[in-house]
């Protein structure tokens, strides 16, 4: 089964296989990111701009801002969860409060807007 | 490549959704195939149904579109009855009880906790009195807004109500315009007050005179969402009332054909206006979409606009007692944050019938107007106990408050809004004195950048944010100042960011005091802000803890319902069946 991923309601949440899985308004800790000058970006997710699958990862670029310095913008690709078994389609979300490493990517398996 | 939403719309959209909706309603929530949830919820919006946020699955917000905010005699009672019977959730709201109606900033009505299984009955009751939910949401002509006292107002030059009604009849359910790239918001007004708020709509008709004839100038491309606020731009077109529908046809067809269907974030016509500019917009409209020569713009009345101008003169809102042109009166009642308990709605319906014609109207400031009250009924009507809570003469802080839906129900919001704004308004009323010459002071609270509470056009703009306080994440607000409409409309300057929500009332108190101390002569608040730089203004906003208590500082979005005793997401009863009983989980 193909993993079906999209953002909906003006980027309010990410749907994975027709289930609401990741919401805006959470804080994400980003490290080794050039999003802002902070050592660790305390990032408020305000909207999901792009989503995609890089098996087994479900990834997103998120609009928001660092609540420490106020820098706002869109992150590089962040892994927001995984679908390890595409047949079951079960989604395992990452803990947004742990530290994440956004990555620049040139490849996107299933680009979505 | 067209977006996924466009693919769903290509399969089923518009009027035909209703048949499927009714079939699902008859069979129950479980009948919607799980792998089609997203597609159907996107489509249901076209019929005014918005699936509530995470933790509230199977419940819907229902929006009823009332063009120009006009609720005809007999309709308010039905709205109140529907709210009381169907809009009750598993847990009461601590400020508003178990059932209530929201009057929105687009002169519509929102009900919450609607169950799929109840929709056929609700539709039947609404349609029996000429109300409906069609195109209240979704990618189509939305509820038409305008001067809420069109046809009654002494300041009116053109009666825009029949024009609004004609646009509503022409474009609702019309297959040619049922699938637009995105929402399409239209405003029309014929008064010289500017209360149509055309500047923030996709298509605006504003009163103007051309060669001695009264009609409308046309503006295009306004809107507030996504940190990309735009004022509608003059495309140098005048239209007589009888041809407004032709120009509306042309503009919405142009949007249908040229709007961006690949990127929903770029789909609104304001972005096409960015790309084309007003001259090209006009020429494409002329060459491809209308078969008569468009007259150039007439002489507008914008220099007389007083609505939401901060001028402290004229007609900043519709609250209060005002004489109509027929000698009767309309009474604008303040509804704090636009939310009114269902029992109160029913009582007001009775009073409107007893003292007026039975008609009421909704304003773009979330208030309600009782129209057609004869002078001899005024004293008795305004002495009714209900008007103690919905006053025609409220404190400026109650009168000026607007709030969006917030995390109570909305997926996009970052913070709790309505109950918080109620608490803010009460605290400010008790603790802050505005300068004596300031009777109007608008504070708009929007939970996110979608800007449903129109924060950018308020004296004090509040927008949902997060910050850390003592290391812990808390709900916070960005504070902007000095926005408003009028001849010289202006968006707020965001001067103080990420203020913990419990320090905002203190910040407003300090701001008002600093304004009073530093203002020169009779300077209005809006002029005061305009004449000072952001740094100076930021220093005047001094966030401070006070005796204001905010019970919603935690992450309300992480709860299934912020006011439930056990608000943990895992404790949600949703999804439920048609009688509200929890359905078994797959887990």
TrEMBL record, chain A:
Top-rank taxon: Archaea
Residue ranges annotated for the DUF8134 domain, each copy included: 1-107
A Pfam family hit: DUF8134
InterPro entries membership: DUF8134
Protein name, per record: DUF8134 domain-containing protein
Species the sequence originates in: Haloarcula sebkhae
UniProtKB/TrEMBL annotation, chain B:
Residue ranges of the region described as Disordered: 563-587
Pfam families on file: NIR_SIR, NIR_SIR_ferr
InterPro entries per record: NIR_SIR_4Fe-4S, NiRdtase/SiRdtase_haem-b_fer, Nit/Sulf_reduc_fer-like_dom_sf, NO2/SO3_Rdtase_4Fe4S_dom, NO2/SO3_Rdtase_4Fe4S_sf, NO2/SO3_Rdtase_FeS/sirohaem_BS
A GO MF term: 4 iron, 4 sulfur cluster binding
Segments traversing the membrane: none
Keywords: 4Fe-4S, Heme, Iron, Iron-sulfur, Metal-binding, Oxidoreductase
Residues of the Nitrite/sulphite reductase 4Fe-4S domain: 137-289, 398-543
Keyword presence, rRNA processing: no
Annotated Nitrite/Sulfite reductase ferredoxin-like domain residues: 56-91, 95-129, 322-384
Family statement: Belongs to the nitrite and sulfite reductase 4Fe-4S domain family.
Name under which the protein is recorded: Ferredoxin--nitrite reductase
Taxon lineage: Archaea, Methanobacteriati, Methanobacteriota, Stenosarchaea group, Halobacteria
